[in-house]
Design brief:
about 250 residues; mainly beta; 4-stranded antiparallel β-sheet; about 15% helix; elongated; disordered N terminus
Length: about 250
Amino acid sequence: MKKELLFAFIAFFLMSLTAITGVYAIEGDSRKLTLKNSSEDITGDGIREDISIQGIPYQKSEKVYKKILLTVKFSNGKTYEKVFEYGLNPKFKLIDFNHDGVKDVFLTVPRSENGDIKDYYLYTVNNFVLTELPLPESMEIEGQFTNGYKAKITIPATNKTIVFDLMFKKDQYEALGMYQNGKLNEPTELVILPYGNVTPFLTSDNKYGLSESQKISGASYSDTIGFVDSKWYFKEGKWMLYETDIRENRK
């Protein structure tokens, strides 16, 4: 009797396990959504590749994906798949950034609902192998508050310096104890964030580069003083600084 009960329990357990495995497999397949696909020659052999981005959402009604898949089906029969953890509305563009005559894959994966936090990836193809190209590094920027409710920002790479007049924030900074009658109570550096926005731009000779924007904060992260914009051009195997601009935020 005990053996019969044991066998019955084992049979029930195996059936349950099979059922559970089947449910997850079906759910995984049915919840994979194709978000964008394109057909383009990215190898230079004259034959188009199939490039797609897919997402597996947490719930069918949501636009938040627990996994994102970049898939490239090459003309030689090989398939490349890259999996990214978490994202909201991934997009890709096909643009020739390294100027070898064929387009590269530029992928943007937002990580926050307001779009403030994004990850960026750039891939090029060599001999049917999708290889990640490093993005330009964030600019080295120096910034500090100065007397008279001002802030000085310097870009060492270009020797460019600009001073922002922050008199319109006088009451805020006085209340925080940073200033007293226009005099800075102690040396205070600005907060320079890594790049938060990367977009393609077209040069004067109709070639593409990448534009980055770095936020400059003062008393807190939300105290946005300005932005440093930098443009980069890929040349001789590395990113070269094309131009920079410092923008003040008067809000």
